[in-house]
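Morning, I've got a small favour to ask if you have a moment. I owe you a coffee for this, so here goes:

…
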Amino acid sequence: MEPEGTVELKPTSRGDFAALRGLFDDPSFAGWGSTAGQMDDAEIRAKYLGERLPQVECFLVLSSSLPVGLAQLHEDTARGGGMDLILLPTARGRGVGSASVHTLVERARTVHQWAYVTVDPDL
């Protein structure tokens, strides 16, 4: 499925706190990131604003320039790692997730030269 509008993965930085806070305020993000309930400001800053580089890269998922999700690549070994992705309900079923996964896999292969990428779905 081709995404509706443009999809971009933007590396997070300290200036993205407000966008991340908005995402984590959405009920669909409750409990994501190994936290029960709504994530507090300190945890967002510690986990998702570049403090864990280079082992964990975080990206805002932008659809038509609006933040609609969060994606991560996390190194597990020198040969590979995992990815995580969460989207707002309004972004689901529109090709945003598929485009994001393709971008993450390409980055894992070309930038990190990983031999494998795992996905750990939260079911």
Observations:
- The two ends are 23 Å apart (CA to CA).
- The CA atoms of residues 13 and 49 lie 5 Å apart.
